[in-house]
């Protein structure tokens, strides 16, 4: 078990330098401001690409960075969302897709899923994205269709997020915003979905794309009064 | 959005030094040998405590490092397990619990779950561990009971892992081993469950505790022949 | 059974005058352009308030005009949506809420639901709307909160609609638009949700509010190419 | 959006003549005596074929006039049934099938369902009817088999109704009766299922067929006393 | 483990006398004509009360002799029913309730179920019977209500049986009949439900009560032809 | 109905000889020490092969002696397990497979399951056993593979048992043991799984194989204390 060598290095070399941080975190508990939902892929390390230290990022990872809709009681992702918003009070949720995603590529190679029935069922939560790709991106080549699938998947998971009660309320109360990211492994770049549905660069700090911004609370005037 | 500053540091400072690694990973795909299932807690960073780089660790994270049993079709954790074993061929699965786990502490403060119905439902997958604690650890003080809950939870999730077809077959074929870890935030130590049900230190590389070792294929002599 | 008198009147007086229409519909099949999802309430008659004749309106009615998200396989509403879009090719889906809705009022009188466990479970699909009302409309009086609940419920069901694959694809392909209506029983008025989240009058035919308009197909330029 | 013209006609021409009725209904609430469960088909308008006005008919419509059995918690149809019986106290439930039903015809053209997975799953609730047709009506021609399917489907949905607790209790208490109808689009006729399993004409008001009549409360003598 | 003594007695004393029968059954397979669904209660031994030998009775036993409706995919009871009718071709299904049934008595002592959440959920399949008892048998004393519960439960499980496709088809084809029994532990008597809803003695072989007799195949004349 | 003759023999000949036993059981209730979970197969009579009388064996029978994992709420087998352990306090649970099992043989003849969709879904709970057979026993002939399937199925159902909260607690508290049996119809022999994974003879009362023995309560020393 090679990995045990890394554990020894952590305990011997790394932890002693961060002891104060870890002890404070053990004493005071965690107070992360951000939930990141990303793929289980070994090449997409959330803390690395955001340069976050222990205590900064609440992280949910699964194959395909998927968020089943709230009605699926009992779900691990919905629970992570609920815990992050209600118990921890995070102010941002990021769904982070990535290039060369095995889960998304499986939609173009369905035979491979025959030996993975659970993965197949799980990916049904990305079926709306696949239907969009089938309907609207048929003229693209294979690689472009895969990338379209990754991007549309991020978009549909943001729809799913919005039917979680705590998220719906957080958005309406102006306390929460939702972000859709694309991480490109080869170039190290991150693009973010804006509210017009385009993925744009994230390197202008004054013009960061936000997929679903926090709203202002609606005014009472919205309420219709019978004549 | 503070986190975006970290993204800029990653792109400006970190990625250029790892460009070759990332480009190789983009070109050749991922080949991790280990699946780690850990908590979404921001203080438990799998790649940090195992000193793993990009491409080395397939990671599934959820509140409470839970593995629902296989029969729960459609599940994200089961899909990650299936993908890791069938598609990636990992040889080790680690379930990593940790001290001060908010999910496990919720069992001792059930009122807090009333506003988190999805978390409550999700934690039902740790109910067998809770029942063991209630039955057998009633004489311990509160903190000890919490810790017992964390450890028993790791143990029951290892039971759940074993009813996944790919895991059952991997164990029987001698190609897969299962590990149950406990990470202590305050001390940075990691203990591992051994096959006698004890959590022991991991710092003796010649005597690493393994919860469920790979088996030898059974001999035909096991098969009963009718008289 | 009083209603049987109405059947006799239909057969004796009404049908003979519409015989040609019915025979054409029997011969040629139905070709409605609109799916209306409305409440089962006896006071909200879709064909009456839209003055639609036989063959014009595909209608799904349930308590609370609810659309469970797509992931709930086996559902009657999702099936009606799928059939309307895929088999019939409707170009509009209307979700129509209404004043004095017993289903929505039940959220403010939860004891009444104790004897109706199925209704209680069904209404969980409107829980995100209820959470918004609880969080953002606490300063309103009871009647206003009920009305806010009706409106927010229409809004959340429109979110649910968008995760149906056929709807997601229809919107992206520019062939489908989604509408959110509010019918006031007392005044006979209908308001419609616009894309800014406001319910507005529908009596200006040149400025009809549309909740989710058909999109133009996205251009290829959306697709990110790795550097 | 053509339908908006109908809305204008309703508001301008129709509503003013029914204003008193609608205001009374808004003030006093609904008190319908009948729940009708019919198909979403645009050619089958429940209020038209029963000549019912606003406030008279509680209506649940879905593809195939299906009633999943009670055990399917969370269902829209079961909720409409429960609400109608428990909250509104209806005394009659009618399940109304019809000729040329697209949902029933789909059983004879299963390929068409491949692009409608939700409809396919939904129609599994009519599978018992289909199995009866396959087993007992194989000697009929295609059109007759379709009609047999429509009729057997009405019959099986009446079985499903009877396992709803409120329906079972209403029947046993003599307060509720169940009706199975067949509406023929071409001729405008309605046939009703009698308690011998035959669909008969409904034009003799002194001999109306009833599928499942209200029972008398059982006498205590039914109760077996141990010797 | 006391029971192992019984195993030794079976192998030493009983089996040698039935060796021919067991070897024939091993060689030729089973061909039972009857499926009995009875309670797991240790006092209700199906083979004993019907004096059936090995190979004669296909037996499904669970707490409360319950048959969930067919729509509950994945169920053990539905599978036993399906296997018995389709693979074995049984001609009779018996649902056998009994006096002093712990499962039925639990409806009158709901607190006891708090520590048995699975039992509680399982018994929801008998909820229609309970609702009938609550509505119609309130004037009876406790013991009579328990017995009414047992009898009504047998009746509702017979309703559930009828929505299984293979059962619906078997009845319609005249190849299957359904029986509802009540076994009284104290007196050893068995009563059977007749088609009028009464439980009657079974000791007149010329007048055996049958709950749901095999039907004759319906004649084509049932099929309505459009005018 | 031939079976009714057996009922008459039971009432006339058998019951009178056991009247005292039955009356005591009716008066005092059942107190079985053992739960047996066996196949519905008519050739496997639990009370016969263990020579148990009325009141001695709580029995759950289904096709394939399957125990779905606990997370499958609402299940009949899980309810029987829960009732047996919590309400009756049994000290042993036996899962009893058998030779020539139709359910297990179906894995090698999947076409036969096409007409039995419920059985097919039910057998998915034995899929881990099937995957082990496919992976590790490919070199065996057909009959041996069938037998391997039966044995591996017993083993995986024992895994499922251990995730039931009451079972997990009973084992940890030293009050419950789990047994895996194989009954050979042709020879009448019973083998039992030992804790090393081998099925061995049961005819040495001093060396009975036990699959999962009752444990001693864990000592507090297992609990890790943070440094
Ligand atoms: Zn990925
Ligand atoms: Zn944790
Ligand atoms: Zn309403
Ligand atoms: Zn129809
Ligand atoms: Zn019982
Ligand atoms: Zn068997």
TrEMBL record, chains A, B, C, D, E, F:
<comment type="similarity">
    <text>Belongs to the beta-class carbonic anhydrase family.</text>
</comment>
<dbReference type="InterPro" id="IPR036874">
    <property type="entry name" value="Carbonic_anhydrase_sf"/>
</dbReference>
<keyword id="KW-0479">Metal-binding</keyword>
<dbReference type="InterPro" id="IPR001765">
    <property type="entry name" value="Carbonic_anhydrase"/>
</dbReference>
<comment type="function">
    <text>Reversible hydration of carbon dioxide.</text>
</comment>
<dbReference type="Pfam" id="PF00484">
    <property type="entry name" value="Pro_CA"/>
</dbReference>
<feature type="binding site">
    <location>
        <position position="101"/>
    </location>
    <ligand>
        <name>Zn(2+)</name>
    </ligand>
</feature>
<dbReference type="InterPro" id="IPR015892">
    <property type="entry name" value="Carbonic_anhydrase_CS"/>
</dbReference>
<keyword id="KW-0862">Zinc</keyword>
<feature type="binding site">
    <location>
        <position position="41"/>
    </location>
    <ligand>
        <name>Zn(2+)</name>
    </ligand>
</feature>
<dbReference type="GO" id="GO:0004089">
    <property type="term" value="F:carbonate dehydratase activity"/>
</dbReference>
<dbReference type="GO" id="GO:0008270">
    <property type="term" value="F:zinc ion binding"/>
</dbReference>
<keyword id="KW-0456">Lyase</keyword>
<dbReference type="InterPro" id="IPR045066">
    <property type="entry name" value="Beta_CA_cladeB"/>
</dbReference>
<dbReference type="GO" id="GO:0015976">
    <property type="term" value="P:carbon utilization"/>
</dbReference>
<protein>
    <recommendedName>
        <fullName>Carbonic anhydrase</fullName>
        <ecNumber>4.2.1.1</ecNumber>
    </recommendedName>
</protein>
<feature type="binding site">
    <location>
        <position position="39"/>
    </location>
    <ligand>
        <name>Zn(2+)</name>
    </ligand>
</feature>
<feature type="binding site">
    <location>
        <position position="98"/>
    </location>
    <ligand>
        <name>Zn(2+)</name>
    </ligand>
</feature>
């Amino acid at each position: 078990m090679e990995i045990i060598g890394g554990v020894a290095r952590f305990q011997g070399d790394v932890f002693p330098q961060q002891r104060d941080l870890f002890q404070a975190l053990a004493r005071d508990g965690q107070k992360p401001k951000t939930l990141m939902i990303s793929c289980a892929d070994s090449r997409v390390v959330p803390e690395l690409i955001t340069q976050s230290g222990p205590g900064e990022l609440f992280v949910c990872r699964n194959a395909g960075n998927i968020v089943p809709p709230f009605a699926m009681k009992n779900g691990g992702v919905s629970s992570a969302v609920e815990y992050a918003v209600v118990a921890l009070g995070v102010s941002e949720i990021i769904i982070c897709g990535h290039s060369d995603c095995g889960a998304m590529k499986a939609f173009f190679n369905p035979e491979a899923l025959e030996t993975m029935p659970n993965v197949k069922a799980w990916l049904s939560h990305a079926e709306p994205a696949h239907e969009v790709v089938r309907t609207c991106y048929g003229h693209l080549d294979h690689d472009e269709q895969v990338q379209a699938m990754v991007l549309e998947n991020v978009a549909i998971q943001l729809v799913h997020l919005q039917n979680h009660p705590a998220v719906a309320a957080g958005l309406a109360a102006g306390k929460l915003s939702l972000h859709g990211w694309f991480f490109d492994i080869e170039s190290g770049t991150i693009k973010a979905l804006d509210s017009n549905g385009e993925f744009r660069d994230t390197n202008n700090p004054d013009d960061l794309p936000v997929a679903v911004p926090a709203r202002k609370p609606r005014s009472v005037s919205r309420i219709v009064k019978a004549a």
